[in-house]
## 1
Amino acid sequence: MTKIRTWSALAGAALLLAACDFTDDILVPSLTGESPSGGERVVIPPSNAERNPQPTISGTPPQLGQTTFQPEGVTQGQATGTEVGRRVERLRSDLGRLQASVGNDDGQLQGLRQQTVANATSYQQLIAGIQSKLQVGTTPGNPNLVAAWNQAQATLDQISDNVGQMTSLSNKVADDSALASFVLESVRATYGLTGAVDEDHRQLAVLEDEVNRTVVLIDRLLNELTEDVSRQTNYVGRERSNLTVLSLAVKNGELFGTSLANRAFSSPTHSRGAAVGNLSNRRPLVVIRFDRENVPYKEPLFTAVSEALNRRPGAVFDIVSIVPQQGTPAQVALSANQARRNAEQVLQTLVQMGLPSDRLSLNSTSSSDVGSNEIRIFVR
C-alpha cells in the first residue's frame, strides 16, 4: 500500500492534477488559470477505491421476484344436455388447457430464477476474488486473474442467456394472457345464448369466476416477469462495463473503481476533433507528462475524471497533446508523432474505463514552454 499512498512522488515524476479539490470553477474553462508547466508539486489524494478496505467494482445483483403462479384448477360440472351446457364444457376444457400452460410457465420461471441466482452468486465470488488480489497488489497481467476474469465473463454470459430465456417466456405468457381474455369474453357471451337451464348459468358463473382469477394470475405473472427481465438486463449491461474496467485493472495489476459508463450522462454537445479554443485561458483538469517510459497515470486519471463526472455528469473532455518546440525539425517531428500516440493511448484508456467516445475530443498543439511531451485534459 506504500506505493499507492505515496502519490506526491508519482505526481512530481509523471503527472500533475490541477486543483485536486475539484472546486466548481475547475469544471468550466478558467479565464485566469495559470499554465501547469511549472514545477509545482500537488499531492494527489487517494481514490475512493483506495480508501475502501473492501472495494467493490461489481454491483449487487438485483432481487428477483419470489412469487409462484400456480392456478387453482377448474371446477367440474354435470352435463345438462343443452347446447349451452355443451358450450360450457368446451370453455371449461379451454380453461383447463390454459391453466396447464400457465403452470408450465411458472415452473420454467422458477427454474430460470434459480439458475440466475446461482450464476450471479458465482459471478460475484469471481469478481470479489479478483478485486481482493488487485487490492493487495499483484503483477500486471497475472495469468490467474486473467483466467478468473475469463470465467467471470463466461458466467455473465450465462446470466445474459437466462435473461434471454426470460424474455422468450414473457412472450409466451403474453400469448396466454390474450387467450385468457378471449376465454373470458366467450364465457360472458354464453350468457346471452338461448336454450339454457338454471344449472347452465350456475356453472357459467363458477367458470367466469375461475377465468377471472386466471386472468389476474397471468397478469401478475407477466408483470413480475417483465420486472425481472428489466432489472437483469440493466444489471448485465452495467457489469459488462465494469468487466471492461476490471480487465484494464488486471492488465495493469492495480484496482480501479466502477466503470465511468455507469453515469447519468447528458446528451453530448461536442464531437471528437472539435476546436478547444485558446489553451492559455483554460485550466486543465489533468496534466500527464510523458518524460519517461511507462508513466503510471491511469489510477490518478480515473480518480480525476470520476470526480469531474460527479460534479458534472454531462461533461465533455478535450484531450490535447502538447509538443515541445525544441531541437531540430526532425526531432520536433518525432516528438509530434510520439505525442499523438500518447494522446491516442490516453483516449483509449478512458474508453476502456467506460467513458463513451463521444465524450472525448482529440487535439494537438505545440509550445515552447514545455520540456517534454504532455497530455492535458480539459473539461467542457
Note: The radius of gyration is 31 Å.
## 2
Amino acid sequence: MATPRLCSGPATRREFLRAGTLGLGGLTLADVMRLKAQASETGRLKSQRDDTSVIFVWLPGGPPHLDMYDLKPDAPAEYRGELKPISTVAPGVSVSELLPLHAKCADKFNLVRSIAHDFADHGGGHKRFLTGRVPRTPVDTVNDSPMAGCVTAKCREHKSIGLPNYLSLVDNGRQGPDVFAFGAAYLGSSYTAFEVPGDPLAQNFSIPNISPIAEVSGRLDDRARLLQSFDKFRREADQTGGMHSIDQFNAKALSMLTSDAARKAFDLSLEAPETRARYGQHVWGARALMARRMVEAGVSFVTILMENPYQSGVPSLKQGTYNWDSHSVNCHIYDDLRVRLPIYDQAVTALIEDIYARGLDKKVMLVVTGEFGRTPRLESQIGTQTGVHQPGRDHWPQSMSMLISGGGMQTGQVVGSTNAKGEHPKDRPLTPSDLWATVYRHLGIDPEWSFPDHRGRPMPILPFGSPISELLPS
C-alpha cells in the first residue's frame, strides 16, 4: 500500500494555497473553504436530487469473493476452500456460513457477482475501481481522475447543511487522499474528504479537524468532554471576539464544526443502547453507526474504512493480517476470516437493517466492496509470521463480488454470475464504471458533466459505463 502523500492539486491559474495539516497530510477545514472559493471559476453545478446520499464501505486489499458472496460448493477443493454456503431469506441467494446475519436480511440487499476489470496491482485496482476510469498507470494510488466521493463533493458544493458534504471515517495512520486513491485529481484538493480518523468508541476520540482554529479555543482531546468542548469552544469564540479575528474561511469552518448539526451527528451517545449494541462494540460498527447518523443529517457521501479487524480489544492473530490482502504469505485465510467476518457481518447488517427501519432506504444507497477479488484457486506458502505452510488467495480483478442496498431498488437479488470456478463473469459482465453510473444516477449527477483537467481539457465524470438496470429504483 502506498504511503500517504499530499495531493499536488491543480496548477497555473487554479493554483491553490497549501496550508495546514489534517492528520497525516490532509487539509484543514478552513483550507478546504478557502480552496473552494478560489476554485469558483468552474461554476456551480447542482445535482438534480440533493437529498440523496451514499455510504461507501471500503474493504481495501481485496475481499475473497469465493469465501463470502460467490461460493462454489461443487468446485474442486482447491477452489471451493473450507467454507460452505448457507441459504438466506431471499430465494436463490446464498452467502458464506460465516455471515449468518447476512442470511437473515438478504431480502434487503443485492449481490453483484459479475463486475471485473484488468488492474491486479492494489494501486491500479484502487484507481480503476474508485474513479470509474482507466488510470494512466497500473501502480501507485495518486489519482489522475477524481474519486467518486470527490465528484459528489464538487457537484454538491452549493449544499450547506452545517456539515461537510463528503466525509471519510478511517483508522489513525491511514489518513490522506493518496493512501487509497481517494484523491480529487484535477478537481483540486478542496474536494477531498473531510477525514475523521480513529475509533469513535475510544475514550480519547476527538475531531482533530478542528485543529486549524486551535489558537482560539484549544484542541479537543478528551472523548468524555467532546460535547462540552463543542459548546465551550463556541461560547469562548463569541465572548473573546475570536469570531471576528479570523478570516471568513476560518469563520465558516468554525461555524460548521460547532453547529448543532455537527454536534449531534458526531454524538453516538444519542443512540439507544440497543442500537449501539446491534452495531457492536467495535470500531467498524461504530463507524457504520456514525455514517448512518451523517447521511441522516444530510451528508451526501460517507466513506467507511473496514480494514483492520484487530482493534477495539480484538487480539491480534499471528496467522492473521490487518487488511483483506489474504496471500498465504500474509495470513491463513480461513483463520483470519473466522475473526474478520463475524465483525463485518454484524456491522454491515446492522447498517442495512437500520437504514430500512428508519425509512432511509430510498434516500441512501449502500455500497460495500474492495478493489478486486481473490484468485479462485487457493495457494499455499510459508507464512511470514507463522513460518508454516498455510492457505491463501492472490489478487484477482477478473471477478469480484459486492453488496448493494437501499437506493429505492428492488432487493433480494443476485446480479450476474461467474463460471463454475469463480474465475470470470459468465452472465451479465459489468465494470466498476457501470457501478458508478448507477450511484451517480441515484445522486442525480449526470456522468456526462465535464470538468477541466490540469490542461484545461474537459473531462467527463465517466467516459463510459451504464446504470445497472437491476439496481435502479423499482
Note: Residues 209-265 form one domain.
